[in-house]
Amino acid sequence: MNFVVAFLAFNIIVITHEMGHFLAAKRFGIKVLEFSLFMGPKIYSFQRGETMYSLRLFPIMAYVKMEGETEESDSATAFNNKPKHARALTAFGGPLANILLAIILLTGYYAIAGYETMSVNHIAVKSPASDAGIQTGDKIISYDEMRTYSTIDIMQFLYVSKGKPAEVEYLRNGHQNTVTIKPVIYPAAMSPKIGVSLGSDNGADSNIINALSVDYPAAKMGLQVGDRIIQLNDTQIKTAQELVDFVAKNGVKLIRVKVKRGEAEVNADITPIEVKTQETYDLGLDFQMAKGNIIDSFRESAVFTYSITRSVAYSIGWLITGKAKLSEMMGPIGMVSTIGTAVKQAPNLMEMLLYLMRITALMSIAIGATNLVPFPMLDGGRLVLIGVEAVRGKPLSQDKEAYISMVGFVLIIMLGIYAAYNDIVRLITG
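Given the sequence above, the corresponding structure tokens read:
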């Protein structure tokens, strides 16, 4: 059931993308020969006007076929004979549809569940943030000279800077201040894990489970998202750090875990497993949550969508400079698996819908933004060719465009195979 829901969510993202192209093409009078749901042999179709609408055998993806898109045509309704702005906006229509879908989903999610702000909620004692003089209520506005719009920005900038000292700008009582912060670096190591992700890194409510790793001890022994971990053996637990410290000291010996679930207390015996962790970095702070009206939620969703879209552009540069790894690429298999995992973690239908809204929005932004990368066979590559045509005053020859498309197609297929390999390895190894 979880896989089916995840598969549907992924297809909604892709179909929305193609619908964006379809609506833009219709708006500019470009003849759409076919709008197809899914891929493979045709199992049903009907003609309406100039367009054939078809349903194909393999239930994944979708596509729009426009006249004059990949071949010469003398028709006035052909894609290649339309003005540059019409072709550019048609190419941009797919990514735009993905971004709009994400904003709609996130607006609903934030209106129900709230959103994380950039204002500091809690600072751990003797942490990098504390040592730098950052205080509760400060609003972080940049990290390592890069503007921060969401807490995900800080996590990404921490990761690519490998924990080096960085300048942090923040607002306090309307005044802008700058400090240098030196993150704590936790080297890669074999560490005992029970497979829980907690509500925040520090402070009150940080002992509440907000995610469970599939096939890890906590999930196998029946712990649920929303459980508050209150006791490990005979030790009372009030914060995430206390839990981390206890598990690290305990090693792989059995732990008697007590959690609060609603008004009831639940007990479970959990034996941690040793897991190889990646190098991580910590500032020792977390951020305030807020919940506003639909306008506030819409504004926050637009800001967050911009932040994630920008991170895709940054990621290209990070891949080139080696700050990010190609092995972390995710393809369709990984996306469906990630959505399915999020759905599986939900303790009830409402939580499942909220998880699904958020993860689908994130994937939709990723697909939309990635398609804007100026690479052959992507929408961004087509926009570049239209830009070259505008500068030259004439389009590239059909032979040159075909050669560029062929090279792009081969590279996309190679990247797709590599991403699928990464996805399968992650599924096997967890």
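The chain is about 45% helix and 25% strand. Try to locate this feature in the token string yourself.
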